[in-house]
Design brief:
The protein has about 220 residues and is mainly β. It is about 10% helix and about 65% strand. The longest helix is centred in the first third of the chain and has 21 residues, at about 1-20.
Length: about 220
């Protein structure tokens, strides 16, 4: 099964390379790590690193570090979380690279539902963004779906499909910030780790931009249970 996933990952990356050439390297690449580790029966520690590039590698667009403490309102579900994010951005402005730093506080609520093979997740997030010369608030809503392919459940050594849509809304004008649509193939390594490779299209300021994404998910618990 790992050989199958390796071939699928290679296919996704190859398609991304072809698309990047066709769009004059307007296709970016995001490399992501997500940790969601239990520290007690109710509490969890969220930790996240995202390394975002304008191209495949080397031209940094954004480095995002995010962490937070969450609490399950019900057993392994309905999680509320308070977190902090540090974001280093290096956009191009009139052909020159600039550097911006943002500090972000966020609150979120995640609820999960299961319908047969379909694993559905809703995430509601409120962000207070401390920019270098501004302060803004933003609301985000994401709906995501994981569907096991080779087994009926998300069990070790199984292949699955993953999709999501997320919308970002400002509290002031303009209200619409961006929308992201994502599709990927994933592999469950074991009960606490999985990996995904996919493609995300982002609509922002009337511009569509594609991103190849590779994500690693770590749910190894810190508590003894």
């Amino acid at each position: 099964m790992r050989k199958i996933f390796t071939k699928l990952l290679f296919t996704v990356l190859s398609l991304g390379s072809i698309t990047a050439l066709a769009q004059k390297n307007d296709l970016g690449a995001w490399y992501m790590y997500f940790g969601n580790n239990k520290i007690s029966k109710k509490l969890n520690w969220h930790n996240e690193i995202q390394y975002r590039n304008f191209d495949a590698v080397g031209d940094l667009e954004q480095l995002l570090l995010r962490t937070g403490i969450g609490y399950d309102l019900t057993e392994n579900n309905n999680n509320i979380l308070l977190g902090y994010g540090f974001i280093l951005s290096r956009p191009y402005v009139n052909g020159e690279k600039k550097e911006n730093i943002e500090h972000r506080i966020f609150q979120q609520f995640i609820t999960k539902q299961k319908f047969g093979r379909f694993n559905l997740q809703h995430r509601y997030r409120l962000e207070e963004r401390f920019l270098q010369d501004d302060f803004r608030m933003r609301f985000r809503y994401m709906i995501g779906l994981n569907i096991p392919i080779t087994q009926k459940e998300m069990l070790p050594k199984s292949l699955y499909a993953s999709v999501y849509n997320e919308i970002f809304l400002h509290f002031d004008s303009p209200v619409f910030d961006r929308n992201r649509v994502y599709g990927a193939l994933g592999y469950v390594i074991n009960k606490n780790m999985r990996i995904e490779a996919g493609y995300m299209n982002q609509i922002q300021e009337n511009r569509n931009r594609g991103q190849i994404q590779i994500g690693f998910y770590n749910n190894i618990p810190f508590n003894k249970n």
